[in-house]
């Protein structure tokens, strides 16, 4: 699957390199595409501020999510929960997918509890429920998936000879262990990030009080 500036997500046959069919319905550039085995098999985000869930077999849109007010540039699927997150300049939002494929197909859960205040180009999540978002200004924000709490912020460093404006993070992924993060950045570098093995609750205290509507009793 590929998304393009023609507002279309195209489905391709890898063996023949031929297009199978287009998924049409967006009104602007398709910025992000994610897939999964279960329905909806394809989820797309666009500059038209919408997220669409697709029935791959039928080639039709199953639902359109209109919760964002600005371009949806990145999507990420949770590795084992039936849920995903979408990012825009307004916020990162979390959605739950219906397991029985009945409406509502994409139930809005909550916003992440802080705003990165930049264009978020990419996101990644590991099995420890750590969500990472990479911004156009070189910021890496680490979130707790369950609560939406931002527990750490890191700023990348551009390589010598590059401009400060080339700090943008364009893509990222966790390795198979989930403990190392790989980022692709505007200064033409690929960076590897690892956990701080010396970190403890004492050295990195978290003063977090969940909002009233998110508390569990």
TrEMBL record:
WD repeat positions = 1-22, 23-64, 113-153, 169-203
Q: Name one Pfam family in it.
A: WD40
InterPro entries, per this entry?
Prp46/PLRG1-like, WD40/YVTN_repeat-like_dom_sf, WD40_repeat_CS, WD40_repeat_dom_sf, WD40_rpt
Q: Which GO terms describe its biological process?
A: mRNA splicing, via spliceosome
**CC per GO annotation:** catalytic step 2 spliceosome; precatalytic spliceosome; Prp19 complex
Q: Which UniProt keywords apply?
A: Repeat, WD repeat
Q: Which Gene3D superfamilies does the protein's record reference?
A: YVTN repeat-like/Quinoprotein amine dehydrogenase
Family that this chain belongs to: Belongs to the WD repeat PRL1/PRL2 family.
Concerning PANTHER family, the annotation shows: PLEIOTROPIC REGULATOR 1, WD40 REPEAT PROTEINPRL1/PRL2-RELATED
What protein name does the entry list?
Uncharacterized protein
- Name the species this protein comes from: Chara braunii (Braun's stonewort)
- What's the source species' lineage? Eukaryota, Viridiplantae, Streptophyta, Charophyceae, Charales
């Amino acid at each position: 699957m590929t998304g393009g500036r023609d507002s279309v997500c195209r489905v391709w046959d890898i063996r023949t390199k031929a297009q199978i069919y287009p998924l049409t319905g967006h009104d602007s550039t398709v910025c992000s595409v994610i897939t999964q085995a279960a329905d909806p098999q394809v989820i797309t985000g666009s500059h038209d501020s919408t997220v669409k869930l697709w029935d791959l077999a039928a080639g039709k849109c199953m639902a359109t999510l209109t919760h964002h007010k600005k371009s949806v540039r990145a999507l990420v699927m949770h590795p084992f929960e039936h849920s995903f997150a979408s990012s825009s300049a307004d916020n990162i939002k979390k959605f739950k997918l219906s397991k029985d494929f009945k409406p509502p197909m994409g139930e809005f859960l909550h916003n992440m509890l802080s705003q990165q205040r930049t264009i978020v180009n990419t996101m990644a999540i590991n099995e420890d429920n750590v969500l990472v978002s990479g911004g156009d200004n070189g910021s890496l924000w680490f979130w707790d998936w369950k609560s939406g709490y931002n527990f750490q912020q890191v700023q990348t460093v551009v390589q010598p000879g590059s401009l400060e404006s080339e700090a943008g993070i364009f893509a990222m992924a966790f390795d198979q262990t989930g403990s190392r993060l790989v980022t692709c950045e505007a200064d033409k570098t690929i960076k590897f990030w690892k956990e701080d093995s010396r970190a403890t609750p004492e050295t990195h205290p978290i003063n977090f009080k969940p909002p009233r509507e998110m508390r569990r009793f």
